Amino acid sequence: MRLRVRLRSGLLDRELADGCAPGSSEDRRLRAKQLLDPVTRRRLARSLREVVAAAERPGAAQLGSAVPVRREAVMSLREGLLGLAERLELPVAVNPSGVARAAVLLTDGMGPLYSCSSPHSLTEALWWVVDGLQLCPPHAWRCPVLMKLDPEHVAWTCERCGAVARTDDPSVKPT
Q1: Is 65 inside a domain boundary?
Q2: Into how many domains does the chain fold?
Q3: Does any domain span residue 175?
Q4: Phi and psi of 155, rounded to 5°?
Q5: Where are the alpha helices (DSSP H) in 63-118?
C-alpha cells in the first residue's frame, strides 16, 4: 500500500487539497498521515525557501529540467512564502488539506508559482494554502465521529480533515 500511495502521491495530494476526506479511502488516510509527518512538513518548508532563494538570484541561469519560478510574483510575496515555510515547521496540528495544497503549489509546473498563464494568481494560491492549514473548529464540524477512549475521555475525529480533539467533558456522549 505504501508503494501505491508513493506512486499516486501527486493525485492523492490533489484530492486532499480539493477537500476529499482523508478517511474516505485507505490511500488518502495514509497520504494524509505522511503529509502531517514533521519530516514532510520540513521538506516542503525547505522547498518554499529554495523557491524564494531562486527568485532572489535574477542572473542565475536555470540549468536542468526544473521549471523556473516567476521571479516578480515570488519576490512580491517573499514574506508570505517564508511565513508559510515557518508555519509548516511549527510543531502544531494542521489540516492535511493545507499541507497537500502546499505540495501542489510547489509541484504544479503550470501553477501560479511557475506559469503566467495560471488561472489563479500567486496571492490567491498562497491564501488557498494558508486557509487549508486551518483545523476544523469543533463547533463547525459537520460530521464528527465520537470515539470512547475510556470512561473519562472522549475523542472527536473530523471526517473532513482527520483532526482529533479530546475532551474530559462528561456531558459529551459517544454515538
Answers
A1: yes
A2: 2
A3: no
A4: -120, 140
A5: 71-76, 78-89, 96-107
Instruction: Name the residue range of residue 96's domain.
Output: 2-133
Angle between helices 26-36 and 9-17 (to 10 degrees): 90
123, 74 in Cβ contact below 8 A? no
Query: b/e for 27-55, b at 16 or more Cβ within 10 A?
Result: bbbbbbebbbeeebbeebbebbeebbebb
- Indicate whether this model's pTM tops 0.85: no
Both 156 and 115 in one domain: the answer is no
Domain contains 116: yes
Domain shared by 115 and 148, yes or no: no
What's the CA gap between 158 and 22, in Å, rounded?
Answer: 10
Task: Report the candidate in 19, 164, 174, 10 with the shortest Cα–Cα distance to residue 94.
Answer: 164
Burial class (CB in 10 A: 0-12, 13-18, 19+), 89: middle
Distance separating alpha carbons of residues 66 and 58, to the nearest angstrom: 16
* pLDDT tens-digit readout, 42-90: 999 999 999 999 999 876 555 556 778 999 999 999 999 999 999 999 9
14 and 79 co-located in one domain: yes
Question: Over the stretch 86-121, which tens digit does the pLDDT of each residue have?
Answer: 999 999 888 999 999 999 999 999 999 999 999 999
